Structure formats: C-alpha cells, structure tokens
Predict the 3D structure of the following.
Amino acid sequence: MDGVIVDSEPIHERAFLEVFAEMGYADNHGMDFPAYYGRSDRALWEDFVAKHHPPYPFEQLVEWKQTKLIELLRRERPIFPDVPRLLAELEPHYAIALASGSSHNVIREVLALGGLARFFKAVVSIQDVGRSKPAPDVFLRAASLLGMTPSDCVVVEDSIVGVQAGRAAGMDVIAITNSVPRERLGEATHVVDDYHQIAALLLPEGKRSRPRPRQAALACQSNCKGASA
C-alpha cells in the first residue's frame, strides 16, 4: 500500500519527525528512514526505543505517530493518480488483495480516500500476522484469504524488503521504482517505472487503457489468477 497505492513514504517520515520533535529529538533521532521502507512502524519504534529509551509507553508512541499520519493523509490525499484506473482494469480479471505493513486503521483511511475498498477481496495488515517484511507472512496470508496458491500470485511492490518478502513467499514480483532506484530492485521478477507497464505485464493488449505521459505507482500484490496490491 505505502509507496504503491499512496505516495506515503515521505508522509510517514514527516509524521515520525513531528513526534520526534515533540519528544525533544528533532535533531538527534538518528533514524535512517529509507532503511525502514516496506517495514512496519513497530520496527522503527523498536530501534528508536533501544537507542534512546524515551519515557513513554511503546503503544503510546505507536498511536502518537499513527494519529499524525492519519491527519496528514486526510489533508493531502496522496493517492497515486493512476492507481484507481489500474485497479479497475485488473478487477475483472484478477482477485485482488491488499497486503500491507500498516495497521488496519491506516489502511481504512487510505482506501476511503480513493473509494478503493471495492476492488479488494481481502485486506491483510501487519496486525494479522506474526512477522513483518522481509518475512513473507502478509503475502502468504493474502493468498490464503483469496484461496490461491502462492505460485499463482504476483506481488506489486516498491521496497527492497517488500520484494524480498514476495520472493520468499514463492510469488513473482513486479517492482515499481517509486521509492528506490531500479538497480536496488534486482531481486524482482520485473522492474517497471509506471502503472501502464504493470498493466502491460498483467493484461492483454485490448484490455489496457492508453498511457498518460507519466504514470504513478501501485504496490503490494497483484496476481495472475488472484492478485493483491
């Protein structure tokens, strides 16, 4: 979802930075945000707490940042503009699921922004599984909910750990260059630069819309009999 359906990686970073500043760590938080692309908030918070030992309960930190994030999402509505069209094109041909490292309340906010919930037959959050990416848990759970075998599924991802998770699940992976350069996505089955290229890989010629000058990015998982984003 993050970095594929919504251009949210910068917004996640801003939400964290606002919380860090309010705690007094504006200039010395020491966190490398790109290293956490595709991973859960909890992974970053675990490392932050180990580094700084802030005087706040862990769950309060998680909620604090999520509140900031939701405020920013509602205000900026950063859905990639070509995602609704791509989902509408895929939906007649694939069962689509969303498999995300975000919590369910953030997922609900994102899907509400674009009215996208109708496209997804299953939604999986990090809250539903034991391990975050690069473990394959969210993708395996999505395939299970769709009634698909992993080898029949294709993941659409934007992050290095997401690509690793998809491959670990035994799925083909389409990586889109929204968050990191293509040379760092080499483990993916395919690397693309826009949504039209995703449609070209997954749909027959007559089922694709004409490309716009610059398409945006969809991410998480799509599948050839079942699909998840």
Summary: Helices lie at 9-23, 41-52, 58-76, 83-90, 104-114, 137-146, 160-168, 195-202. The longest strand covers residues 95-99.
